[in-house]
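comment on this one:
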Amino acid sequence: MTSRISRTKLMVGIIAVAFLALAGCGGARSDSSSGDSDAKTYTMKFSYVTTANTPKGKAATKFKELLEAKSDGKIKVELFPNSELYGDKDELQALQSNSVQMLAPASAKFTTIAPELQVLDLPFLFDTVEDIPKIVTKDSKVGKAIYENEKLASNNAKVIGLWDNGFKILTANKELRKPDDLAGLSFRIQPSDVLRAQFETWGGKATPMAFSEVYNALQQGVIDGQENTYSNTESQKMHTVQSNLTETNHGYIGYVLVVNNTWFTELPQDLQKAVQDSADEASTYNREVAAEVNAAAKAEIEKAGKTTILVPTAAERQAFKDAVVPKVWTEYESVIGEDLIAELLSQQK
């Protein structure tokens, strides 16, 4: 009997020691579950679909450097480029579920949850890169449609910046000098009704497709061409399977920098400020490097010697523009906003 009682006391003692040890380990962890707010650290997973050497990739790297410094290491940023964690089809769901905390999708990717963002898909919205920061400010109608979008907020996404990747070019295996040259050809688009209308107005066919799938689709003849920036075209080697490129500069690719709102609001105020300040500085940096990266990508395409680059005359470019402006713009004014479309049309040169 005494022996049995001793063994019972021994087991109770062992369990008590183990419990205290586990409790001690939990209290010492420096993460978001720690009881000491000063010792808390946070992990931000940042997923994006382009390579690290694109304007988006370079801005993501800069953002990581800035935030880890501004937060004194309390926020660790993990970067996942080139769709290695999530691709076009599932990254927004991953943000909403907090599987990732940061994304920078092209505005067209928000079509299903915030169709107003298709304002950035309007063809010939900007004529020069200098027009972008003038038209898209946080206080402008375009900016408010993005930064104050209630539908994004209801999907647990907070907009903290807008990154540029420059203007789009057209590629195909034939010369594209005028809108009629697109007739019957199939072009990959991001999932945007505005982009679909753009190509159909030019006489082409539009095929929504994930960015990571475009090269193979071009190589195998599933699609005939695509629209994108020089940097995205070159980084994915799309030019190696396209004989012709036309520098139409007909559209803009803007990346909407979004953070999971629940994750963001649970940060202490000083760390929320660090995230926003880092986003602001990374946005400035992004605009500075976008032109450089696209120019370097164009040079690489020229060097490869597989693709003929056509720079249209002012009249040739105007023909592309006249076909879709204002036609496509007014077609989607009920989605984007009648007042916004009216204001943008009034600013057309």
User: Anything to note?
Assistant: The two ends are 99 Å apart (CA to CA).
